[in-house]
Amino acid sequence: ALELDFGAFEPDxxxxxxxxxxxxxxNFVSKFITSKxxxxxxxxxxxxxxxxxxxHHGDVNTVSSTISWTIIYTHIASIPKEKRKAKQCVxxxxxxxxxFKEWGFEKxxxxxxxxxxxxxxxxxxxxxxxxxxxxxxxxxxxxxxxNVVIFSPHGYFGQADVLxxxxxxxxxxxxxxxxxxxxxxxxxxxxxxxxxFKPQIIVVTRLIPDARGTKCNQELESxxxxxxxxxxxxxxxxxxxxSVLQKWVxxxxxYPYIEKFTREVTAKVLELMEGKPDLIIGNYSDGNLGATLxxxxxxxxxxTIAHALEKTKYEDSDIKWKELDPKYHFSCQFMADMMAxxxxxxxxxxxxxxxxxxxxxxxQYESHSAFTMPGLARxxxxxxxxxxxxxxxxxxxxxxIYFPYTEKQRRFTQxxxxxxxxxxxxxxxxxxxxxxxxxxxxxxFTMARLDTVKNITGLxxxxxxxKRLRSLVNLVIVGGFFDPSESKDREEASEIKKMHALxxxxxxxxxxxxxxxxxDRKRNGELYRCIADSKGAFVQxxxxxxxxxxxxxxxxxxxxxxxxxxxxxxxxxxDGVSGFHIDPNxxxxxxxxxxKMADFFEKCELEPAHWRRISDAGLARIEGCxxxxxxxxxxxxxxxxxxxxxxxxxxQKLAKQRYxxxxxxxxFRNLVKNVAxxxxxxxQAKPVAAAPPRANSSTKITARSQSRFQRIFGx
Length: 715
What we know:
alpha/beta; Four Helix Bundle (Hemerythrin (Met), subunit A); Rossmann fold; eight-stranded mixed beta sheet; seven-stranded mixed beta sheet; 27 helices; disordered C terminus
């Protein structure tokens, strides 16, 4: 069998040494860069060369070829300090009014004299005294990232009517929210840099001619809530004749198409952006592979986001790969994951446990450090979780949808009648079954898919067994279908049958409402707030939860939250302060969890302020650690820092790239030949016309700074 040793290409790569530092790669890299550059002036030459290379569509940023460190040290003190003069020296005129141009400085240091002086002093300080915080701060102010490409090929990627379709769920929501946050942060940074460029973000996905009533057959679609971001859809083509696949393809079966897809994507992106992107972000195994191919070809900084590594979801999937391969093609997927995570300049994880696990469970990435697929490959050194490429940047909830129940003026009151119908109509309908006899009781609420891991039936059984909890609160569940024959998933169908049996066994009618899966995000946001109005709580009882976006949504709506201690929620919640941990595997069949809930609600009856105290602490926890604003700031900082890190490590980076290319060409291409090509009638794709151009209400900009993408969608 093939033996893979990616670690052999990292003899000189510095690694973290403390497990507590895992996931804090940017800080480590900033510290290492600072130590490399500080001291003698000639040590800073790589940074001089890097600053000289910064440009956007040919416009030079930060410094010109006449600059030297002597000039920087000499003239930092010459930047006007008086606020009066600083206010006069803004925008493009600042560099001429303050004689910067003749010194060799260009635009990009700041939009005011005060900010430019501050940026330059940050540079001076990191060169004289090693300080990773100052180094990261300096790189965050450099004009390095303007154009971003985000890969997400599988499923039905769209903005409406797609959630619930095959392979289409949380990843779509994550990326759309991510794009909005990144664009807002890019616009802010570019403005503060004193530049007049417009950022571009393109989400790359598959064009599906048989779009099932969605816009997934539309080539270009502007992203709502943004000015400079769009979805670019490119079809999958058959390897043998280039004809277009018409129908959806499972995420496990996409690998024969990714190479040709990425080649076509690259050409279209270069045309739309009129140049290379500055950062490419992959999502899931197929998107990370596409990002790897494109980033390698263009020489661009690459990030990967796993969302879920399938190797850890299916027990012994490496050992049993032959048995599982006809259905899941893990031989392709695990190789794609290994190549992408080793090629990436940085990896974005949502939690520490995703990388390194806990005392009871190995991390998703940790499980890829060494493993064997008998007869296929033996990975002796896959990925090192102490590698500084790992960074934790947790996503947030859409603040326009999930906001506190106390903000009455913002609430979506148009949904109130529909939500009251969902919760309190005593009759069974196609949308809900069961009823709440005492509608004044608080409600404990959960919302998730009906599968074994999400453990919704487990919560139902816990509730059914605990008479004290039942006397205090009602149970509201949102998820799945009511008729098992409606589900195409065998596991979900089994859970539906189990749910019906539990309702009968514990006679839950009158204390439980089961609502079918809801896909309207705005209405779901208001549903959280309605539960908060009842002084209820949210429960996330999963056996394991990689991150826990519903936990973020609930806490950001002001709901006290009880969540599993297995996975991401254990990091989101400070137990007993901003919410509560529950152990889904604890003794007594959930007795520990229900005792914790019952104790909370009894205390709230005796001391009503206790509910508000936990609610407020949850809101503060999210605001401080789990917002898209924080996420975007961290991600763009990574893009800036790791772009320079590539420059410092280009020889070692090149050696590993060659190894990955060899593995791809000689091994992976043979593996994808075993993936069956679906049989269907094919024809050339006929995407519908792109959305009409927006009216351009902004000030006129030069032709150079306006790409074809911007001429289509407006500046």
